[in-house]
Design a protein that fits this description.
single chain, flat, mainly alpha, 250 residues, 48% helix, 7 helices, disordered C terminus
Length: 250
């Protein structure tokens, strides 16, 4: 008679096998912000960033000119107006040459900086106007310094201040015409909230639902308010209009 040996039983203290469940996705990772250089190169930098880079570049160029003039005059006696090697005074011709080279490099850098995207037409005019004001001020300063007698530096300072005022007005007009535009929260005639349909501009005041009766477009209340383009709310005006009727949503 054949004896059948049963298979060994698994140990009782072994944990039951559990099928692996689905892997849960981790938290969303914020996209890495590109560097300033990358935004400037690919043309995605805001015009305010470009303007700041332009100003920094101009200041850097203006600082490099006297440094290079001093060291060139210290190494080459033909560029030194001082007596001997103890006193270094760069020649005026050297300073003028370095200034012209720096101005050319600055203009070339500005042309490259402001032509990186298709949106350049919005600010290329003000940039050229600013460069023209700077060039005209520099030319007037040279003429005044060479032709007027006495305290001619006072006239030069006056031209510099006038040029700075013109540049400020130019870029103020850029911000005024191309900056953010807001609508008034309340209508000036009746004082009610000036809520309008984003599709057909129908005034949606006194309605019991956020659906436009003119074109039939429906919005949630937050979508409707977000598309109005209202500016920051003035707290004093808000407190004086607490009794004004609000838009109701069905």
């Amino acid at each position: 008679m054949t004896t059948v040996t049963p298979p060994p039983l698994p140990p009782t203290d072994a944990p039951p096998s559990v099928a692996p469940g689905p892997t849960l996705p981790g938290p969303p990772v914020a996209p890495e912000r590109p560097t300033l250089w990358r935004e400037v190169v690919d043309g995605t930098a805001h015009w305010g960033v470009r303007l700041t880079v332009t100003l920094a570049l101009g200041v850097a160029m203006a600082g490099l000119v006297p440094i290079l003039a001093y060291f060139l005059a210290a190494t080459a006696r033909s560029f030194n107006r001082g007596s001997g090697d103890r006193y270094v005074y760069p020649d005026d011709g050297l300073v003028a040459f370095l200034t012209a080279m720096a101005a050319g490099g600055f203009l070339a850098a500005c042309a490259w900086l402001w032509t990186r995207s298709d949106r350049r037409s919005k600010v290329v005019g003000p940039v050229l106007l600013t460069l023209g004001i700077v060039a005209a001020t520099f030319a007037l300063g040279v003429v005044v310094d060479q032709n007027l007698r006495g305290a001619s530096e006072m006239v030069v300072r006056g031209f510099v201040l006038l040029a700075a005022a013109c540049v400020i007005l130019v870029w103020l007009n850029v911000y005024r015409t191309r900056g953010p535009r807001y609508r008034a929260l309340h209508d000036r005639q009746d004082g009610f909230p000036d809520v309008r349909c984003p599709s057909c501009n129908y005034r949606m005041v006194g309605l019991t639902e956020s659906r436009c009766p003119e074109c039939g477009a429906a919005y949630t209340l937050d979508e409707l308010i977000a598309k109005q383009g209202f500016g920051p709310v003035n707290r004093s005006a808000q407190s004086s209009r607490r009794d004004a009727p609000a838009l109701k949503s069905a």
